[in-house]
Design brief:
The mean pLDDT is 94. The chain is mainly alpha-helical and 247 residues long.
């Protein structure tokens, strides 16, 4: 459920995990009832959550066709960003009876990420931008383009997405070029700044990238130096042992 970034489904998932079975069932019933009432009042996020319950047949009568048809109408007739995001995730993951087809999800992710007229949470907008960035990075659905990937990572990062900040930091450390000649210049200061902020809040991947960067730089300077001081000799010896881990 969590991948759908739906506040109602998130609460339902949390209720399922309660250690007390009786308390869990009571909480689940309350949330399902709340979803139904909010959906009747046309709360879009609740409508999407109810469609999910219909599709999987959880605590409501199962009607997968009706659930998917309602989502399609919300997209085609209302241009509802909540439904766009939900269906895009379903296509990306091949979930809930939707084929695994990232090419169909790319359009909706891009629309949600870039169109600020669409009212949706920062979490969903960031996730949409992250998914578009990853598609550009992979180069399977769209032509591989590191510059475009960086643009969408930066957008997701602006909404607080840690994964995007990590990827953007890595891109800045090396620089990148897009297919149309767009250059992302190497900017170690900017890259390390992003990674340091992540590392300071406990992001292990960011910490490893910082260490890897400095080890690579240290290796380069140790080898280029003509000096043979004790510090350089010891450093060369240690760096030779870990070189295979930092490439």
């Amino acid at each position: 459920m969590n991948k759908y970034c739906n506040a109602y489904l998130d609460r339902l998932d949390a209720a399922k995990k309660l250690s007390n079975p009786k308390e869990s069932q009571v909480k689940i019933s309350e949330i399902v009832k709340e979803i139904g009432l909010a959906a009747k009042n046309n709360n879009k996020e609740a409508v999407v959550a109810y469609c999910y319950l219909q599709i999987v047949g959880y605590k409501v009568e199962q009607n997968a066709i009706a659930g998917r048809e309602r989502l399609t109408k919300m997209i085609n007739k209302q241009r509802c960003p909540e439904a766009m995001f939900f269906v895009a995730i379903a296509f990306l993951c091949g979930d809930l009876g939707y084929n695994n087809d990232p090419s169909k999800s790319e359009h909706w992710f891009r629309d949600v990420a870039l169109n600020l007229e669409l009212e949706i949470s920062d979490r969903k907008r960031a996730t949409s931008a992250l998914n578009v960035a990853n598609l550009y990075l992979q180069g399977e659905v769209v032509t591989k383009d590191l510059a475009e990937a960086a643009r969408f990572f930066e957008l997701a990062c602006s909404y607080g997405d840690e994964k995007s900040a990590l990827m953007l930091g890595k891109i800045y450390l090396k620089g990148a070029e897009g297919i149309f000649g767009t250059i992302i210049p190497r900017d170690a200061v900017k890259g390390l700044d992003l990674l340091h902020k992540l590392a300071s809040i406990g992001n292990i991947d960011a910490t490893e990238e910082i260490v890897r960067y400095h080890l690579i730089e240290a290796t380069k300077w140790c080898r280029e130096s003509k000096s043979n001081t004790e510090l350089l000799r010891v450093s060369r010896s240690v760096l030779d042992e870990v070189e295979w881990q930092i490439k």
